[in-house]
Write a structure and sequence with these properties.
Elements: E1 6-11, E2 16-23, E3 26-34, H1 46-67, E4 77-83, H2 87-104, E5 108-112, H3 113-119, E6 134-139, E7 144-151, E8 154-160, H4 166-176, H5 184-191, H6 214-230, H7 234-237, H8 239-265, E9 269-273, H9 280-293, E10 296-298, H10 310-321
Parallel strand pairs: 1-4, 4-5, 6-9, 9-10
Antiparallel strand pairs: 1-2, 2-3, 6-7, 7-8
Helix pairs in contact: 1-2, 3-10, 4-6, 4-8, 5-8, 8-9
Bound molecules: 5'-O-[(R)-(carboxyoxy)(hydroxy)phosphoryl]adenosine and zinc ion.
């Protein structure tokens, strides 16, 4: 076996089927198949997601291997997402990974999806990586966490959402505005020409470093309902301002807690990760914050923000170095924690 490991990684926790090949810390391929089927339902339908994963997994893995210009015998280990996520979706990726590892007689590595998002900062792509310890705001459709990262294999959650995730707040608000799923990127797009102060929504009162977004969602719902009763064209006439104000409210909640976390921990290395870290307003506000506070800020490339197997591959690489392998009887978990 070559001393630099070549790892095939599989990610199938939600509605993207992805496979990647990494050699050392360098990504050779990262293929992602999205599932458009959910858009018409306004959210992910779990059963449809797992069926689509079953259809996509073989062509996606095949494409990743071909793009990486490797053959199966070059693969040192298989890494896969073991949770958290939708159980039916996780089972497709984990069953495939197990069978493949068994057939090739190579080690199997299970990866926590959220740790994968965080470790995407260590992919060797000419970008500077954070130094330890650092704080990572992990914001996706299912999670909103502030994580203290001591090393690639030691992380602790110091703040988390008590209800909805930030991505959910984006997607549910977008649905109220009549936008399709996932609405986060659409709000981002339409907010660009809107007034962030046009509308004010209720602010959560959660102590410490935890988050809450369900009150904001209700406040947005009532504001829209009340105004639509008076003027049926309210949404159409105020569309861009609504997008900008909603986005401002969600990002302000994240910013407030990050400011607090920096103060409490004294850590000045800050990273963002997860689907919502693709948001342009979040990126510019965090850049302003880092200048104001003299922080080192790490923003992932767009392709590594939303779900992808490259992040599972880099997390798998660190576990490979530790020989942290799992057996065939390892079970996927929808609610896997750190
Ligand atoms: O990390 P991810 O791809 O999947 C999960 O693990 O959940 O995150 C998906 C979430 C969705 O809620 C989506 O609306 C949100 O990330 N998202 C965005 C943007 N791009 C993706 N939210 C706001 N602005 C964006 N540009
Ligand atoms: Zn994710």
């Amino acid at each position: 076996m070559n001393s630099i490991p070549t790892i095939l990684a599989i990610e199938s926790s939600c509605d993207d089927t992805s496979a990647a090949v990494i050699r050392g810390k360098i990504i050779l391929s990262n293929i992602v198949a999205n599932q458009d089927i959910h858009a018409i339902y306004g959210g992910i339908v779990p059963e449809l997601a797992s069926r689509a994963h079953q259809q996509n997994i073989i062509p996606v893995v095949d494409a990743a291997i071909k793009k990486a210009k490797i053959s199966k015998k070059d693969i040192s280990a298989i890494a896969y997402t073991n949770g958290p996520g939708l159980l039916g979706s996780l089972l497709v990726g984990s069953s495939f990974a197990k069978s493949f590892a068994l057939a090739l007689n190579i080690p199997l590595i299970s990866v926590n999806h959220m740790k994968g998002h965080i470790l995407s900062h260590f992919i060797d792509d000419d970008k500077k990586s954070p130094t330890f310890p650092f704080l990572c705001l992990t914001v996706s459709g299912g999670h909103t966490q502030i994580v203290k990262v001591d090393n690639p294999n030691k992380m602790s959650v110091i703040g988390t959402t008590l209800d909805d995730a930030a991505g959910e707040a984006f997607d549910k608000s977008a649905k109220l505005l009549g936008l399709s799923y996932p609405g986060g990127p659409l709000i981002d797009k339409y907010a660009k020409n809107g007034n962030i102060h046009a509308f004010e929504f209720g602010k959560p009162k959660v102590k410490g470093l935890d988050f809450s977004f369900s009150g904001l969602k209700t406040s947005i719902l009532y504001k829209i309902q009340n105004n639509v009763q008076k003027n049926p064209d309210f949404i159409k006439e105020n569309f861009k301002d609504l997008c900008a104000s909603i986005q401002f409210s969600i990002i302000s909640i994240l910013l407030d807690k990050i400011r607090m976390a920096i103060k409490e921990t004294g850590i000045n290395e800050l990273a963002i990760a997860g689907g919502v870290s693709a948001n342009s307003f979040l990126r510019s506000e965090f850049t302003k914050l880092s200048t104001e506070k003299g922080l080192n800020l790490y923003i992932p490339k767009f392709e590594y923000c939303t779900d992808n197997a490259a992040m599972i591959a880099i997390a798998g690489y660190y576990k490979f170095l530790e020989k942290d392998f799992v057996k065939q009887n390892e079970t996927a978990s929808a609610s896997l924690t750190f």
